Batch of 2 targets.
Target 1
Amino acid sequence: MGSALAVPAADAGNDVTLVGSPLDDSIIDSVTQTRIHPGLKAELPDSVTALHVSGLTADHINNADLVVIGVSSPGINWIIELLLTLNTKLPRLAIVTKGLVERGTDIPQSYAHLLPEELARQGIAPEAFIAIGGPCIAREIVFRQPTSVVYASDNRQALNDVHAWMQTPDYRVHRSDDVVGVEVCAALKNFYAIGVSAMLSGREMPGVTPVTMAKNPLAALFNQAVREMAVLCHWMQGDADTAYDLAGMGDLHVTVGGGRNSRLGKLLGEGLSCGEALSGPLAGETVEGVDTGKAIYNSFTAAVENGRLSAAKLPVTAALLDAIHHDKPFAFDFQLLG
């Protein structure tokens, strides 16, 4: 996604430096030599300069108007250490990394809290922080398919500036001040996509060729998942309405359509346990919805026990946590709806 965002940034007239993580050397080499991103199978604009992380200096950061972080969630601590090592003043900082930080029985922390607070604690607070969410498939952005996203910040001037820097005819940036809600929903949609995607397998319609899955169960679970996302978003101190917009419902729709969370859900729908799927067909994959489930389990359990949340009103959440934390089959009882 970091590489994909380089395209609208370049199309909007900016000079862009694309820095690879230590795992991205072959990608950086390919872009440098041929302009082709091998993962996205697309040519990146000439105004995008590819750079190995070993070549990143404090001057690159000092001369930037905006730094965008696009690592996967396991890489967030590496990013923090990298920025601390450079020991430079940070400009406006945006993030597309999605996840929640487990804090025992306390409400999980979003990266919207973790990243700025940790950097500020180390004396290098960014000038402003912007959360990026919404329904985005990286390859579609690269090929300039019409895309609507949401950028959130509590710094309105920074938000307006980044909006101007990133918006193109195809990449449409919506603005929000609900930073926590956008970050929370962006993480939770990965979690709920597992349960919704389980409806994409194991429910064949009889007498139909080619094999077709029933659509009604999928729609029912999708609707329930969005409602539960709104409840948890409010519980985590975001705006519940954000769950019904781009960062929640919109992104959930796209995530169910494909990706690792969707693949895990389909495997659960076929009868595999979470452990069997992650040690078998998905071995070695980072399924961020699973990490999100693990991050909320203890706090969710505590909130149910103290009456702040009702498990009866959150049946998709409860079923998914059983599947992830206790490795039980994902079995959703539709009698719990309506």
Target 2
Amino acid sequence: MPNAMTRFTLPATTHIGRVRLKIADLDRSLRFYGDHLGLQVVRRENDSAHLAARADGPILIILTAIPNAQPKPRRSTGLYHVAIRLPDRPALARVFKRLVDLGWPFQGFSDHKVSEAIYLADPDGNGLELYRDKPRSAWPWKDKQIAMSTDPLDVEALLNEAEADPQPWRGIHPDTDIGHVHLHVRDLLEAEAFYRDVLGLDVMQRTYPGALFFAAGGYHHHVGVNTWIGRHAAAPPSNAVGMEYFTLMVPDRSAIETIARRGREQNRLLSEDEDGVWLEDGAGNVVCVAERE
């Protein structure tokens, strides 16, 4: 069982901020994230680019081209997918149609009861989910856990909705954000001891085979973890493409101080700086807990 630390719960307004991805070719990735998905390049410097849904919006994704980039080993921990959340179904339909028109390949389509999701990968194979939430009042619960499932998505209805929309493509919806991240880990108990006991996220579902889902404020999940590539998998090498880190945004400094103390006690704290506190989950996944974007 996870360690018996005193229970600590994050404030309800906690959310995912930005995700930094390591890639091989910045121009190639910008053609995908900019032209295909419709994110805006807010800043570009050297081998990095900062992307947002609108020019004055928060940074959602940072792309950094690394030297001698290699594919992420298939059976390694790290990123499963970054979940880009659209504000409503029409916005999801529009970006879906955009990708269909451009011939971009998809990896799957799911109705999770709490959301509708489309799965694909970027040019480096980094997993992405495009999704929209259903109203919270419609989310199913069972035994005090969110009852997410993986059912077929009505793709034809989603595409028909986009085709009936007369608006021309002008980029991704400006209210788009990062809804959650889903990670490969080496052990679920180790992951729970970190994401629940150190970070203070609640376990929202523990009945999905080989996975756990964590969140603040009753959300279905801000962080998902799984051992689907095998328990005790190794972390990828430093020059592999994938996630460098993600940020968890909290509304007050006291929560950050508590997380820093708990991370130090559990040997999960990497460093502290003006951006926040940096921690590692035991499987090589890095999170920065910060108070501001």
